[in-house]
Amino acid sequence: MAESPLTIANTFIDIAEEHKQKLTPLKLLKLVYFAHGWHLALTGKPLVNEAIEAWKFGPVIPSVYHAFKAYRDKCIDGKESELDMKSEGFNFITPVIEKGDAKNMRAFLEKVWDVYGTLGAGQLSNLTHQPDSPWFEVWVNKGGKNRKGTDIPDDLIQSYFKKKIAKPATPSTVEQDNGGR
User: Fold this and answer.
1) How many other CB atoms are found less than 10 A from the CB of residue 34?
2) Other CB atoms closer than 10 Å to residue 86's CB: what's the count?
3) Which of 11, 98, 121, 144 is deepest in the core (most CB within 10 A)?
């Protein structure tokens, strides 16, 4: 079963804190997107239970955007809560990974961090804007820029990340995937 996007975002906030690094909302959005893409490619299942949308500045998970938008370009200094729909009344919880494979999920997100965590928000954004990316396909080629909140289909994201698995690593592809570093 897919996770709440805030669960994944909060886990990345924990991982960043453990690495003594700060996250901006833009970087956090991109990390959640990359984790979702790799999860789709590797397992065939979505990581988050919310659609990814094509916005002007790249792929966006609306709940993550709205939860952290007040930080603007500043560093996030805490986790976000969400309404607990399972309990009676109005209770807010800080979502965390609690399922049986929490250890595996955490290890997966740490691997995503190892690959993308040292890149800046701009570098991550550049990676999502490449001409063969799902965002580019929806935003540019399919006219997403003319409609607010156009979904990027999971099958398009999955196909894109599967191609990255199949492509042998060469110095140019590693450089391209690491934002030119």
Assistant:
1) 21
2) 7
3) 11
* Strands of the 150-152 sheet, one edge to the other: 58-60, 52-55, 150-152
One-letter identity of residue 138: V
User: What single letter denotes the amino acid at residue 49?
Assistant: N
**CA-CA distances (angstroms) from residue 40 to 2, 94, 158?**
11, 25, 5
CA atoms within 13 A on the CB side of 128: 33
User: Where do the domains of the chain lie?
Assistant: 5-177
pTM over 0.85, yes/no: no
pLDDT in tens, 35-53: 999 999 999 999 999 999 9
HSE-CB at 151 with a 13 A cutoff on CA atoms is 6
Residue whose entry in the numeric block shows the structure tokens 């309990």: 87
SS3 (DSSP) at 60? strand
